[in-house]
Every structure is written in structure tokens, then in C-alpha cells.
């Protein structure tokens, strides 16, 4: 995906202060009309590193981040899903083969957060939700995370793209790699059942009750995951089940609004604020003069 340089130049990181915590009243956003029910989601399963696709080989191209270069693969939706020119087929394919702008915004934000002393990934347990290419998770590996788990709706995305990207960027077969990397496919409403490191005896309890911090992930990353209104509650509940209490942090990159599908960062943040368990801070935005601003948010427990 070609990245517009003017958009990158307009990237703005906000200071992480209490003044940035916003209370957003979004009552003007009405729910979308009811739609036909989606097909049943694919089964949740772990995809092993050895289960990389042998029939579909991505072509790789560099993505540059001010001195850091990552490789990203390219495969077509026609090759993998027999779909032509489709970024999203709800319930079947959720856009994981495309490199969305939010993934790049997320990596830029993580680097700046580290430079400002607001974040360290060394020794951290990281989960990337809706990973697709997995570049933010790969970046976390390179920054010393102890384990990085990649999740996507489609196992085919993990086999044909995520795992090849990980192999292309990391010495995964070498003892020099300090991170444990694992891959999990499934719907957000069910995938917690197969994720490691969770407190399985009380997954549905409210995270504000003081769960043991040895369970869960220290950092959850997600880019362009909040496009669909119908999936936002399941995504938020999954975050609360997966995040370590009380010091876990979520970084979310997304467009302010996703026209035509009704979701967006502001819709998701409204859900978070109504729950009143986590606090959301807007820490970066991209393309402030464009018609649809991209944002990066940080979520933490109150």
C-alpha cells in the first residue's frame, strides 16, 4: 500500500497527560438499521508456525519508518479466498490481507511513546488483535517483548501472510529470538477460549475487581479493528478478558469514522466510557486537514 507522504508529515503525537482524557458525548450517532444475521464464524484454533501455506507465496516489499525497515508480504484475496477486489466480506473475510494505514500509525506511535519514556516493550507480553500483516506485533518482537501473540479472524490470513511476514522479519528459527510468537484464529466473541495466559476460572468477571497481574497481556495492540458497530461490544469484552490488571495498556489505531459501516474510534471510545472501567486518552492523530482523521488512542484501567 502506498502511503501518502503528506499524511505522514501531519502525524501529531499528543502528550500523555490527564488533560488529554476526553469525555465524548456521541448520542447523535444512531444505531444502524438491522441487517441479516452473519454466517457462523470459523472455529477458533491455534495456527502453528509450521502451518504456513505451501501453495501461496507472498511477494515482499519494504516499509520504512524513519530508519526502521520492515518487510510486508503481498497476496491477493483472489488467491486466498477466491474473492476479487474485496476488502471485507462480513463473516467470511475481515480485511486481513490488506495493509491498512492504522498499522503504520500504530508503529509510529509506539516508537514515539518509547522515545518519550511512556512505554517499554522489553519483557512484555503482547497481543495483536486483528493482526493481518502483523507489523505492530513484529515491531514489538524487535523491541524485546517476551511473547507476542497474533490474532486474526481468518486462519488463512495467518497461514498466507502473517506467518510469512514474521519469518521474513524475525529470526524465528534462531535461538537469538527472545520472543515467543504464536498465532490464533477466531472470532472476538470466542477466541479468548484458546488464548494462553488468561485467568480461565473467571473470564467473564469485571476486570476492575483486581485480577492477578500475572495473568493476561501487558500490551494489546489493534489497528483498524473498530469499523463494524456490531462487533464493538465483543471486541471490548475480549480486551477486558485479555488485558493484565491493573497496569495493562491498549493502543488502538483507527479512523474516526468508517463511512458506510457505522463504526469508528469515537464510537468505540463512547462504549469504553459508558462502561467506566477504563480511561481513554487520545495520543496521536494523522491527517488533521483531511475529511476522515485517523487517530491513536491509549486505554488503561482507572
From TrEMBL:
<dbReference type="InterPro" id="IPR029063">
    <property type="entry name" value="SAM-dependent_MTases_sf"/>
</dbReference>
<protein>
    <recommendedName>
        <fullName>protein-histidine N-methyltransferase</fullName>
        <ecNumber>2.1.1.85</ecNumber>
    </recommendedName>
</protein>
<dbReference type="InterPro" id="IPR019410">
    <property type="entry name" value="Methyltransf_16"/>
</dbReference>
<comment type="similarity">
    <text>Belongs to the methyltransferase superfamily. METTL18 family.</text>
</comment>
<keyword id="KW-0963">Cytoplasm</keyword>
<dbReference type="GO" id="GO:0005634">
    <property type="term" value="C:nucleus"/>
</dbReference>
<dbReference type="GO" id="GO:0006417">
    <property type="term" value="P:regulation of translation"/>
</dbReference>
<dbReference type="GO" id="GO:0008276">
    <property type="term" value="F:protein methyltransferase activity"/>
</dbReference>
<keyword id="KW-0949">S-adenosyl-L-methionine</keyword>
<dbReference type="GO" id="GO:0018064">
    <property type="term" value="F:protein-L-histidine N-tele-methyltransferase activity"/>
</dbReference>
<keyword id="KW-0539">Nucleus</keyword>
<dbReference type="GO" id="GO:0032259">
    <property type="term" value="P:methylation"/>
</dbReference>
<keyword id="KW-0489">Methyltransferase</keyword>
<dbReference type="Pfam" id="PF10294">
    <property type="entry name" value="Methyltransf_16"/>
</dbReference>
<dbReference type="GO" id="GO:0005737">
    <property type="term" value="C:cytoplasm"/>
</dbReference>
<keyword id="KW-0808">Transferase</keyword>
Amino acid at each position: 500500500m502506498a502511503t501518502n507522504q503528506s499524511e505522514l508529515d501531519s502525524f501529531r503525537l499528543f502528550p500523555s497527560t490527564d488533560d488529554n482524557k476526553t469525555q465524548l458525548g456521541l448520542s447523535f450517532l444512531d444505531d444502524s438499521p438491522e441487517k441479516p444475521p452473519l454466517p457462523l464464524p470459523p472455529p477458533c484454533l491455534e495456527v502453528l508456525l509450521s502451518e504456513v501455506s505451501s501453495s501461496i507465496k507472498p511477494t515482499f516489499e519494504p516499509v520504512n519508518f524513519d530508519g526502521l525497515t520492515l518487510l510486508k508480504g503481498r497476496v491477493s484475496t483472489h488467491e486466498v479466498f477466491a474473492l476479487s477486489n474485496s476488502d471485507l466480506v462480513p463473516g467470511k473475510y475481515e480485511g486481513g490481507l490488506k495493509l491498512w494505514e492504522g498499522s503504520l500509525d500504530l508503529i509510529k506511535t509506539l516508537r514515539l511513546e518509547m522515545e518519550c519514556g511512556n512505554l517499554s516493550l522489553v519483557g512484555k507480553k503482547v497481543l495483536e488483535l486483528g493482526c493481518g500483516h502483523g507489523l505492530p506485533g513484529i515491531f514489538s518482537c524487535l523491541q524485546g517483548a517476551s511473547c507476542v501473540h497474533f490474532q486474526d479472524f481468518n486462519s488463512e490470513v495467518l497461514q498466507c501472510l502473517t506467518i510469512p511476514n514474521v519469518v521474513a522479519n524475525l529470526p524465528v528459527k534462531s535461538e537469538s529470538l527472545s520472543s515467543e510468537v504464536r498465532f490464533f484464529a477466531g472470532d472476538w466473541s470466542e477466541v479468548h477460549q484458546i488464548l494462553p495466559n488468561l485467568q480461565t476460572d473467571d473470564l467473564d468477571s469485571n476486570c476492575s475487581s483486581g485480577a492477578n497481574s500475572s495473568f493476561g497481556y501487558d500490551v494489546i495492540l489493534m489497528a483498524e479493528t473498530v469499523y463494524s458497530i456490531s462487533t464493538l461490544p465483543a471486541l471490548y469484552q475480549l480486551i477486558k478478558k485479555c488485558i493484565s490488571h491493573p497496569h495493562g495498556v491498549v493502543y488502538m489505531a483507527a479512523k474516526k469514522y468508517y463511512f458506510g459501516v457505522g463504526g469508528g474510534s469515537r464510537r468505540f471510545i463512547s462504549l469504553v466510557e459508558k462502561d467506566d472501567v477504563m480511561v481513554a486518552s487520545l495520543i496521536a492523530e494523522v491527517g488533521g486537514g483531511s475529511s476522515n482523521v485517523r487517530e491513536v488512542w491509549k486505554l488503561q484501567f482507572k
